[in-house]
Design brief:
FAD/NAD(P)-binding domain, binds flavin-adenine dinucleotide, globular, single chain, about 25% strand, 11 helices, alpha/beta, about 30% helix
């Protein structure tokens, strides 16, 4: 078999999945361009800290240039130590809550995204919101809201939960509001607040409400780590913080989505232990958000030159803690198959069919896992 020119892969969306795919493709020598709707690296409202399962670390190791993976490892924080359950007055109810495996890592979302953007240079185009695409003979053309277009051999919709690509490819799948409304915030660490989260995570169960706390302590402070490991990357200085999330009853008239969560949370946890009230009122960032999910498991579609990756194909609930990991696994599987196409070992469409079968099986299982996991967080008197 001889190598052939696969052509350019168009990736729609510079999120965690699309960027991992771009790196994996660059590594295998495949031409790739990423088109992102946001104007710049935009720090989006998707949460502050993210837990990466060991499979995500494997996927990043397989995809990123060595120095960028070293930066992921250096800046990541531990997710080990006891998982505590408190009542709202901070009486310990349980000291060994279930948690992620010991080799999972906590990452600051903004730091991770900036690392993932490293080294891709002008392969990432900003301000390019996909509106549609057309498949031709041997090509696919993407159209953008700014009137431009781009043509390649394959188009990958890595455009997140509201995916335009998914709407064109699988129009029968819709988005519905999940029974998960969260108010979350980030509070700079102090010894007093760190004592609330001595290990991999803390859950506080008060009457009808659950507050979850997680610590983000950088292994090495990000700007210092970048200066040593990847000086071309300008990572901002970051202090550690405690990330808190209160599941807000969906029936509760909430602060508008994306609004400041502090007043809402302080109102809901009125009378709880002063350390918890101070943790919330000292937040330097907070917001309210409502989760959405697909209204059915993702069905198969007729395989062509357009496919999906990450949340676009399997919109998981945050409760599963597995959405990013699954998206990164998609990236590794897809790039491995496209590399085989390039080496002349596979034909393109059967390879994309094989990818789709694996994507749907793993993705739908990941979504179901998140739905089941949510039950652990909803207090008994609300469920
Ligand atoms: C509060 C919260 C906490 C979470 N915690 C965890 C966790 O701890 N662990 C975990 O594994 N997962 C977690 N997740 C899930 C995880 O964030 C997602 O699964 C992951 O970000 C999916 O990556 P993605 O690349 O598919 O999509 P995204 O990261 O959402 O990226 C999609 C990109 O596409 C762009 N885009 C959208 N539309 C267009 C368009 N039309 N044209 C061009 N670009 C477009 C967007 O701007 C965005 O950059 C959490 C999610 C939330 C909301």
């Amino acid at each position: 078999m001889t190598e052939r020119d696969l052509g350019r892969v168009l990736v729609i969306g510079a999120g965690l999945g699309g960027l991992t795919l771009a790196h994996a493709l660059v590594r295998t020598g495949i031409d790739v361009r990423v088109y992102e709707a946001d104007d710049a690296t935009g720090d989006r409202a998707q949460g502050y800290r993210i837990g990466l399962l060991p499979a995500a670390m494997d996927a990043l190791r397989a995809s990123l240039p060595q120095r960028l993976f070293a930066l992921v490892e250096a800046t990541g924080g531990s997710l080990t130590g006891p998982g505590l359950l408190f009542d709202e007055r901070l009486n310990v109810l349980h000291r060994d809550l279930e948690g992620p495996p010991g080799d999972a890592r906590a990452m600051d979302r903004q730091v991770l995204r900036r690392i993932l953007l490293g080294g891709l240079g002008d392969r990432v185009a900003y301000g390019r919101r996909l509106t549609g695409f057309t498949e031709g003979t041997g090509t696919v053309t993407a159209r953008f809201a700014d009137g431009t277009d781009a043509t390649g051999a394959v188009l990958v919709g890595a455009d997140g939960g509201g995916s335009v690509v998914r709407r064109h490819l699988v129009p029968e799948v819709g988005l519905v509001a999940a029974d998960l409304c969260g108010a979350m915030g980030r509070t700079p660490v102090t010894d007093r607040f760190l004592r609330l989260v001595p290990g991999r995570g803390t859950m506080v169960k008060g009457p009808g409400l659950t507050l979850m706390l997680g610590r983000m302590e950088f292994g090495t402070e990000p700007s210092a780590a970048a200066a040593t490991l990847a000086p071309e990357l300008d990572l901002p200085y970051r202090d550690g913080y405690v990330r808190w999330v209160l599941l807000v009853p969906p029936e509760r008239p909430a602060t508008p989505e994306g609004g400041d969560a502090r007043e809402l949370v302080l109102d809901l946890i009125d009378g709880w232990h002063p350390d918890l009230l101070d943790l919330v009122s000292s937040a330097d960032m907070s917001l309210v958000g409502r989760s959405r999910i697909h209204d059915r498991p993702m069905p198969p579609w007729t395989a062509g030159r357009v496919t999906l990756l990450g949340d676009a194909a399997h919109l998981t609930l945050a409760s599963g803690g597995n959405g990013a990991t699954t998206a990164m696994q998609d990236a590794v599987r897809l790039s491995a198959l496209l590399a085989r196409v390039r080496r002349g070992e596979r034909d393109l469409i059967p390879a994309l069919e094989e990818y789709q079968a694996d994507l749907l099986e793993r993705g739908n299982a990941a979504v179901e896992f998140g739905k089941q996991a949510l039950k652990r967080f909803v207090p008994a008197d609300r469920s």
